[in-house]
UniProtKB/TrEMBL annotation:
PANTHER family found in the cross-reference section: 3-ISOPROPYLMALATE DEHYDRATASE, HOMOACONITASE, MITOCHONDRIAL-RELATED
Aconitase/3-isopropylmalate dehydratase large subunit alpha/beta/alpha domain segment(s): 7-450
Record's protein name: 3-isopropylmalate dehydratase
Broad EC category: lyase
Cofactor: [4Fe-4S] cluster
Keyword Lyase: yes
Biological function: Catalyzes the isomerization between 2-isopropylmalate and 3-isopropylmalate, via the formation of 2-isopropylmaleate.
Keywords: 4Fe-4S, Amino-acid biosynthesis, Branched-chain amino acid biosynthesis, Iron, Iron-sulfur, Leucine biosynthesis, Lyase, Metal-binding
This protein's record includes keyword Membrane: no
Amino acid sequence: MKKTLFDKIWDAHVVETIPNGPNVLYIDKHLIHEVTSPQAFNELKERDIPVFRPDQIVATADHNTPTIDQHLPVKELLSRNQLRELSRNCEENNITLYGLGHPYNGIVHVIAPELGITQPGMTIVCGDSHTSTHGAFGTIAFGIGTSQVAQVFASQCLLLEKPKKLRINLNGKLKKGVLPKDVILYIISKLGTNSGTGYFCEYAGNVFEEMSMEGRMTVCNMSIEMGARGGLIAPDETTFEYIKGRKFAPKETEFKKMKAYWKTLNTDTDAVFDKEYSLEAEDIEPMITYGTNPGMGIKLTGKIPVNLGKSDLKSLEYMDFKEGESLINKTINYIFIGSCTNSRIEDFRIVAAYIKGKKKAENVNALIVPGSQQVAAQLRDEGLVQVFEEAGFTLRQPGCSACLAMNDDKIPEGEYCVSTSNRNFEGRQGQGSRTILASPLTAAATAIAGKITDFTKHLN
Ligand SMILES: CC(C)[C@H](C(=O)O)[C@@H](O)C(=O)O
Ligand code: SF4
């Protein structure tokens, strides 16, 4: 039978099949962080079950971490306890932890790829919905709940129903100023936040083939925002080149051997999907959201739709926007460039190229938060720190930061924030805060103008 990329990886990991029931799936890598691991560790302890394969687990501290003075004790009590608990659990169970201040520390979905931990053909899980990011490498990667985290600790396996298969084809040529973030915001705005529910999504077509690994990660990251369990892209030369030479990537002959296998990881011609969509690259423009779910997106120069339903109207009320309104020229006081969606070096290169020689508008607080210590080091090495400082942007230390209000970085009540993160839910960035999702370029242009602006007119 013809197989999809997803089938090939899934089938290679099935340990046991229960007739007419779920599969027992082997998990290659288990990533953990401070928010969703403590209860799972406690459950194991209570039942006196050891962690089965600590070598296949990697831990980092990211959600509760401050982004200033990371060398000092964490001030906030809840966060401090949460981080202490992670350290203790990792120590007791022989799990590698890249804690605060470690040169490999950062957001879980940024560090695993950059360290070469994420590799094609793997199954990767984490108690975190944006685990879908790793699908960019042609892996089956998805978020799990805390009880499943305990299951994986105990057995390195998961009991799972096989999801249905969805493919999104995107072909053509992207317009100038359209970034991978715009691509995924466009897809979600077109297909809706439930279009992927029950499915695992493969992204196919020349647009993804021509995209960098970092761009592919941005796209796969937000698969969950259309309801999909995860998203994945077939590995190719771009993938192999990215992995080669990274800290935990296979070396020399082993790399060659793995590459030969990785090359077989693609969807057979004529393989059948349960659902399929085809979209055109030419239709995509820079995108922004106007509501409180990531599907409420329009092109930057577009107008908020009219005749909206009740829940969308409630959303608009929260955002203090009106039907039919354009967001161009809306004053914005906060910009956040970071999160596991857009905090990698390419994102910051794009921002730096745009703001170089310019100054942020006076009303704007522009926050730049690299996804990892390694990205922070790249910013220094490439002279981008200076560009940000000269433009009046505030550079912080790595972490989830203002993506969600679990640490000190919060957007004040009632304020708009043009954010490169992935969720614009009510209160996501702080109680009463209003999030407008966009690409790093749109965020940078907003910071310079002090308001939402059609920057495409100024691109050369
Ligand atoms: C805290 C964590 C469980 C959560 C997630 O699962 O995604 C967070 O990372 C988020 O982005 O909302
Ligand atoms: S950066 Fe945001 S979306 Fe990503 S893991 Fe952290 S909180 Fe979740």
